[in-house]
Design goal:
137 residues; three-stranded mixed beta sheet; Histidine-containing Protein, Chain: A; 54% helix; 15% strand; alpha+beta; single chain
Length: 137
């Protein structure tokens, strides 16, 4: 009887770990393509995360914006992971989010902290089915 319980436990554990993976599987015919973003970020005039200034003011600015974004639990994981690049008091926001509402919410939080004229919003909206999956979980 113990062997049967052991096998049942293993089967349940395997299905637990395999379940989320199966839900996120991508269509094998769809290839990820972020060529445009990569080209944009190679431009010397485009701020990138490695150009983040190390002065106290810019670090604090980026930190406070990140904290405000992370505290908003209504935002998706994508939104929580946008890039925040502070350079001399100007903040650039980059990365994908699921909706225009998330894009506006992040920009509003950044503007509240950095000042409306100090935010450059380069966030892109994916508008994909993954957002629907996140909401259902």
């Amino acid at each position: 009887m113990q062997a049967r319980q052991y096998l049942t436990a293993i089967a349940l554990a395997a299905s637990f770990f395999a379940g989320p993976t199966a839900m996120v599987a991508q269509d094998p015919d769809t290839k990820p393509d972020n060529t445009k973003v990569n080209k944009r970020d190679r431009d010397k005039t485009e701020p990138t995360a490695d150009q983040q200034k190390e002065n106290k003011t810019d670090r604090a600015l980026a930190k406070n914006i990140r904290r405000a974004i992370m505290e908003d639990k209504s935002l998706s994981t994508y939104a929580h992971n946008v890039k925040i690049i502070a350079q001399n008091g100007t903040v650039t926001l980059k990365g994908p989010v699921h909706s225009d509402e998330e894009k506006r919410a992040i920009e509003a939080k950044a503007a509240e902290i950095a000042g409306a004229g100090n935010v450059r919003n380069e966030i892109s909206v994916k508008g994909d089915q993954e957002a629907d999956r996140e909401k259902k979980q």
